[in-house]
Amino acid sequence: MTTPAIETEGLSKRYGETVALERLDLSVSRGEVFGFLGPNGAGKSTTINLLLNYAKPTEGTASVLGYDPWNEVVECHRRVGILPDRYDTYDGLSARRHLQLVRDTKRATDDPEALLERVGLADAVDQPAGEFSQGMEQRLALAMSLVGEPDLLVLDEPFTGLDPHGVALVRDVVAAEAERGATVFFSSHVLGQVQVVCDRVGILHRGRLVDVGSLADLRSKLDLGDDATVEDVFVDLTADSVRSGEGVR
Amino acid sequence: MALPRWFPLARNEARILLTSKGPWALAALLVLWAYRPSYIAWDGLGPDMTVGFVQTTATIVLPLGALLLSYRSIVGERRSGSLKFVLGLPLTRTDVLVGKVLGRSVGIAVPVTVSASALGLIGLVRFGLFSPLRFLAVLLATHLYVLVLVSLATAVSAVTTSTVRATGVVFGVVFLVLTVFWKLIASRIYSAVSGQAANPYDAPADGLLFALLRVSPDRSYRVLTNWILGVGNSGASYDAVITKLQTPTSISVFVVEAAFETTPVPFYLHEVTGFVVLVVWLVVPLGVARYLFERGDLV
User: How many Cβ atoms are within 10 Å of A247's Cβ, its own excluded?
Assistant: First the structure.
């Protein structure tokens, strides 16, 4: 068996007294579409920041595609596609230039125009990103994450700023990438989008992983009906952890 | 040979600068600022006065411009979030620093070269053929100085979390202390340490004073370029050095030859120290920044 796409053990991040992430044990298999859910401030972005070497952990270990995410950044990022949250593009550079930067650094051979066409920006190839709407910017960022056929896609809140067409596009892209064999790890607080695309979800609340499993697993475990949505599961799990306070797991 | 990993990032940085107005406005300003023919410079240098113009570009205007164009390169992207794309690339954080510094430096060195060429052309037409070797050597020294300035600003940019603090350190320390007021500050430090006055009209023949004076990148750049021009061993501008050596008491300028008339000049005041000091300013702050930047949280 190959190494998991993502594996963490006791991964923790504290800022002074504030606990952003507490002893996260998580394993995401190759080829899986994994949804990382939780309200704002639950620790989703903290986890992603740690996995992408934007931040260093206080404690714990992690491996991304079998690499140490903090000491083997080059090898690791060459195979990872990243759509960050709360980013900004370069106002003066065209969409094409953005993709060329990623392609050339990854030593990939993708055609920028083909990638932009895939995300519905075929008309804006040479337009400066400074003129883009929020939705267009998000599509550009999605295209940047697809450069070089990554083995792992990390999408942080990919539905942000998108209209229904954009949301459908992200879902299609995730499905196509999974079909190709890529692992997709994404975070979201927009729960409705998640059940359509995910094999498994992990629910994070107040820096702790509350539960992990397929939606069906979680439903049966929580004794919810078959028509229970991810919202119901989510509310049930996080309400429980609110009641019992610390130490759910 | 494969290109280094940071090359696309550096090219991107250079492109961002070269497709914006700032560097070209700087280029125009440098020509207007540095074209200063004078009888004293002509007496001292002849047609090589034109090479002196290139040195003048690096006084005040170029440091200010280079710092302005690079002090936000990392802290600004950290605030806006575009740094997340860069950090998501297959690059170490050190690669990111190197790519930023080299790319920005090229983005400034190109307009500087254009200004120098314009000055060279004007000088060629008006004052005749200058030494092309000296011209090239001073231009290269100017590029080194640009690299030092960009590296200093990027180092500060990489280790601060607020744009305001970066602005304060870059303009308060690098520009005001090390560039504009260093002569005054070095003189004060010297007086405090030695108990002797540092009178620039009649400077003491003390190696400590002159060593302190060339600690700043600005003055060491001029020590190096005055050496290339052959006007004298000093961190002052070439025309001030020429004036000083002709009429020593007329001008408040520190020149080694004027102070050490009867005593031997210490070896550490050799003009090559200008180059050494620049290299130290290039390597040390960036090295410290690299150490901190590799370890910190960047979001």
Answer: 7
* Relative orientation angle of helices B93-127 and B272-295, to the nearest 10 degrees: 150
Q: What are phi and psi of A186, to 5 degrees?
A: -135, 155
* Euclidean distance between CA atoms A82 and B116, whole angstroms: 43
Minimum Cα–Cα distance from B89: chain A residue: A77
Q: Is A185 helix (H, G, I), strand (E, B) or coil?
A: strand
Low-confidence ranges of chain B (pLDDT < 50): none
pLDDT, tens digit, 9 for 90 and up, residues B238-250: 999 999 999 988 8
pLDDT, residue A240, reads 57
Radius of gyration for the alpha carbons in chain B, expressed in angstroms and rounded: 20
User: Which chain B residue is nearest to residue A55, measuring alpha carbons?
Assistant: B297
**Minimum-distance CB partner of A105 among B80, B90, B298:** B90
**Helix, strand or coil for residue B55?**
helix
Residue B165's closest CA among B294, B76, B281?
A: B76
B267 Cβ under 8 Å from any chain A Cβ:
no
Cβ-in-10-Å burial (0-12, 13-18, 19+) of B51 comes to buried
Predicted confidence (pLDDT) per residue in A95-136, tens digit: 999 999 999 999 999 999 999 999 999 999 999 999 999 999
Per-domain residue ranges of chain B: 8-174+282-295, 184-273
The alpha carbon dihedral of A126, A130, A135, A139 has a sign of positive
- Contact, A148 vs A81, CB < 8 A? yes
A88 vs B80, B87, B299: nearest CB: B80
Q: What are phi and psi of B29, to 5 degrees?
A: -60, -40
- Per the DSSP assignment, residues forming a β-bridge with A24 are A11
* Record: contact B82-A87, CB cut-off 8 A: yes
Give the 3-state secondary structure of B107-176: HHHHHHHHHHHHHHHHHHHHHCCCCHHHHHHHHHHHHHHHHHHHHHHHHHHHHCCCHHHHHHHHHHHHHH
Residue A1: CB atoms within 10 A of its CB come to 5
The answer on pLDDT for A1 being more than 80 is no
Q: Which pLDDT score is estimated for A189?
A: 80
Q: What six digits make up the tokens of A231? A: 């919202």
In chain A, what residues touch B8 (CB-CB under 8 Å)? Answer: 100-101, 104-105
- Round to whole Å and give the CA distance between A202 and A209: 7
Q: Are B88 and A88 inside 8 Å of each other by CB? A: no
A68 contacts in B (CB within 8 Å)?
none
Which of B77, B117, B122 minimizes the C-alpha distance to B97? B77
Measure the CA angle with vertex B178, ends B168 and B134; round to 5°.
130
* B192 close to A (CB below 8 A): no
DSSP tag of B261? S
Q: Please answer whether residues B249 and B202 qualify as being in contact, where contact means their C-beta atoms are separated by less than 8 angstroms.
A: yes
Of B81, B88, B297, the CB nearest to A77: B88
Residue A217 pLDDT level (bands cut at 50, 70, 90)? confident
